[in-house]
Amino acid sequence: MSAHRAPLLPLADGAEIPQLGFGLYKVPAEDAARLALAAIDAGYRHLDTAAFYANEAEVGRAVREAPVPREELFVTSKVWKDDNGYDETLRAFDASMGRFGLEGIELYLIHWPVPSTDRYVDSWRALVRLRDEGRVRSIGVANFHAHHVERLIAETGEAPVVNQVELHPWLPQAELRAYDAAHGILTEAWSPLARGRVLDDPVLAGIAAKHGRTPAQIVLRWHVQLGNVVIPKASSPERIRENLDVFGFALDGEDLAAIGGLESGERTGRDPDGD
Prior knowledge:
This is Oxidoreductase. By secondary structure, the chain is α/β, with parallel strands linked by helices.
């Protein structure tokens, strides 16, 4: 068992979330249980999946088989955009829990707002109900701009505790992170390495050489120092361990300024207002 362990960050509802987790987007079902167990063995306690990823059953199996107490593990899933709406979201949650084979999960998110269908507030009301009934510990959103979150708060009086968005050195989302922080919302980064494309940047190579680390570790450490929750994906046990090994060094002001200079606004996914 690795000595590495991500720190726990407080959520506004009193729960805690491991700052660095294992992301399961585009992890094939046939690999998901094996890689999730490898992550848990390496010291991860946070697994991030979604109905759309089509590997909830395998993640649930890994959680059930893991040689650690269930209460140590933090599982996130998400309602897919086709199921936005109050009744649809409740049914989607039931279906997800049937696949997981677990009594409950720690965090449930609206995956995309999909403004064109205008059903994300209804989904949010369903998430509030699921939380109030004790079926999920915490509730949040993914891919929400500030104005989407504003509407949730205005119409329900309830703010999400997490906003999971695309975030990496090309797209640091400073304004959204500031908005989230002002409203007690933790920002969580998906595509934290820009799907690996940012790692070829010579600026990162130079910082990596300076610290005796890999470019991926430099970017993940940057996320940690920003205060983000971050969920890198990896497909080998070696990379899984490497991604967690970012708590034994720190970037200095010069490093952070250099990484800040990489901002271009480029997305690897779509804009949440575009649906």
